[in-house]
Amino acid sequence: MDRLIPPSSTAERGAPLVNLSDAPDAAAWKAGFAAGAPTLFGIAAWGMVVGIAMVKAGLGVPHALGMTLLVFAGSAQLAALPLIFANAPIWVIFTTALVVNLRFVIFSALMAPHFSHLPWRARLGLGYISGDISIALFLQRFPSPAPEAGKLSYLKALMFPNWCAWQTGSIIGILLGSAVPAAWGLGFAGTLAILCITVPLVANKAVLAGVIVAAGVSVLAFSLPFKLGLLVAVVAGMLTAMVVEERFERLRGAKVKP
After folding, report:
1. CA torsion sign, 156 to 162 to 166 to 172?
2. Helix/strand/coil (H, E, C) string of 227-240?
């Protein structure tokens, strides 16, 4: 059972109990902010690049602002842009964004044991402001789902500054992109940003195989209508990485056996 404590040390008898992980903890907040602070500049820079890319791709400032505030998913935003301006069906746009963000299904499964007890509104809000780096840093600090003091404070200290950094950078990028002449060629900044994000993530042979296959398929499927080649390439790359990773796991398991 989850470990429970009164909401305050002076709580009256019969007061509702709260999960130990949810109690506000100033020390945990400071620790979380300190852990995430080194990433904030990079997050803001990435947001600025995506903001510029949205405007240079043809979105008006109001639409770009609405997209960054509502979607809050840089890779999905960049993937959706060419489909929007190719007049692709809405289901293609949503499916592409969904496939690009499938990793958050895995993140949700990893975070659920920690915070499934929270009200759905709280979980929905935390899900909206969640990001790759924030979740990774949280799970590094709290690998066990067992209740532990300061968990929620630590998570919020990672997520809120991350969201603010992204939105600040993205809004600056949108305003900058609308003011900078198109001749400067800033529209290619989104592609460069994706490459800068992708290269460090190629951490093993399975991921590398997935990237190679996705790149090849994207070239071969380039002529598909509505930019469907992008969706096909993403799916092919993911499946390749999964198959290769499973193959390596079997090989490692075979070596361990006597």
Report:
1. positive
2. HHHHHHHHHHHHHH
